[in-house]
Amino acid sequence: MSIEIKVPTVGESISEVTLVKWLKETGAWADRDEVIAELESEKATFEINAEQAGVITQIAKEGDTLSIGDMVCVIDTDAVRPAEAPKQEAPKLAEVVAAPTKDVTNSDVKATPVAAAIIADKKIDSKKIMPSGSNGKIIKQDVLEALSNPGRKPGAEMFSRNDRPEKMSNLRKTISRRLVEAKNTTAMLTTFNEVDMGPIMEIRKKHKDKFKELHGVNLGFMSFFTKACCYALQKFPSVNAYIDADQIIFHDYCDVSIAVSAPKGLVVPVIRNAESLSMAEIEAMVVELATKAKNNKLTIEEMTGGTFTITNGGIFGSMMSTPIINIPQSAILGMHNIVERPMAVNGQVVIKPMMYLALSYDHRIIDGRESVGFLVTVKQLLENPSLLLFGKDPVEALLEL
Question: Are residue 290 and residue 385 in the same domain, yes or no?
Answer without folding.
Answer: yes
